[in-house]
């Protein structure tokens, strides 16, 4: 896992969630993508995508460490899927268009419903990688913050 620390105790792996070249900004945070200016719709979109990925990252760590069962994992994944569905896509940017196209493939997830989450699937992994690359191309970082298990 390349020895880069994430959350102070787990490696931040190259290729994590389909992304490349993590940059550790502190012992609790891994970043991918450009270091461009903050602001605008693209920055907000990339921050929201980061939040979805942060949920998945923390849930996956808890499951790997035996601190969370599959039912709880799926509940967190459903929450992350609903958050993914709520990210605004009003811009005409390629990032916004690609996100809107992916959102259109996600079945609606009602709160409290036991639907199959998209987050945590290979389909989401591929979309996350593409969206992360678009964020980087727009000069925005994808930032995952670990906060469980430490």
Walk me through what this model shows.
- The chain is of the alpha+beta class and 150 residues long.
- It has one domain.
- The protein is built from 4 helices and 5 strands, in the order ββββααααβ.
- The chain has helices at 40-64, 70-86, 94-104, 122-137; strands at residues 5-6, 10-11, 23-26, 29-33, 141-145.
- It has a 3-stranded antiparallel β-sheet.
- Helix 1 (40-64) runs antiparallel to helix 2 (70-86), helix 1 packs antiparallel against helix 4 (122-137) and helix 3 packs antiparallel against helix 4 (122-137).
- The longest helix is centred in the middle third of the chain and has 25 residues, at 40-64.
- It is globular, with a radius of gyration of 15 Å.
- The two termini are 19 Å apart.
Residue ranges: pLDDT <50 for 5 or more in a row? Answer: 1-39
DSSP helix fraction: 40-55%
Number of contiguous helices: 4
Distance between the termini: 19 Å
- The helix-and-strand class reads alpha+beta
Mean pLDDT: 77
**Domains counted in the coordinates: how many?**
1
The general outline is globular
Radius of gyration: 15 Å
Q: How many DSSP E strands?
A: 5
Strands of the biggest beta sheet: in what spatial order?
3-4-5
β-strand amount? 5-15%
Taking the sheet with the most strands, its summary is:
3 strands, antiparallel
Order of helices and strands: EEEEHHHHE
| Oligomeric state of shown chains | single chain
